[in-house]
């Protein structure tokens, strides 16, 4: 704020000169000035697509992995066979023995979580329309639902089929919604 586009370009020039002298490849910065945020957003942001993918998740405690591995494997298999597009499990260890007895707003299930399971539908269309071994970013357009009905179906599957299978394994747990 308070610096014109021309002044900013002048301030950046020594850095860009040094990068060039060092042989560093870079993309030339685009410096533009706008009267306000909305004008900048409308001019520089690509069209944001809403409902291109459905996301869901559930925090699974260590006890599910130790005490019910067959149930966990069955849920994973049912979800992936149900054509959920992407399935990720992030392993965690944020229990009290690691963090101490900290008083904060963290969901109580967080302290017993071993796996943060994240499911998306965005890969669904691409996996069944393309050779998955040869995917590239240009295949992204193929991932969009082809109709409103397809998008609604993916949303219903996430809400009524995929997540309930994880919730059944750990009914007292929850979901991580920070991002």
Features:
179 residues, alpha+beta, three-stranded antiparallel beta sheet, elongated
What does this structure look like?
- The two termini are 27 Å apart.
- The relative contact order is 0.18.
- The protein has helices at 5-21, 37-44, 62-67, 69-81, 96-99, 124-129, 148-169; strands at 55-61, 86-91, 113-120.
- It is built from seven helices and three strands; from the N terminus they run H-H-E-H-H-E-H-E-H-H.
- The longest helix has 22 residues, at 148-169.
- It has 179 residues and is an alpha+beta fold.
How would you summarize this macromolecular structure in one to three sentences?
By secondary structure, the protein is α+β, with helices and mostly antiparallel strands. The chain has seven helices and three strands; from the N terminus they run H-H-E-H-H-E-H-E-H-H.
Question: Helix and strand string, N-terminal first?
Answer: HHEHHEHEHH
Give the class from helix and strand content and strand pairing.
alpha+beta
Low-confidence stretches: 123-132, 135-142
Let me know the average pLDDT. 80
Largest sheet: 3 strands, antiparallel
The number of strands is: 3
Beta-strand residue percentage: 5-15%
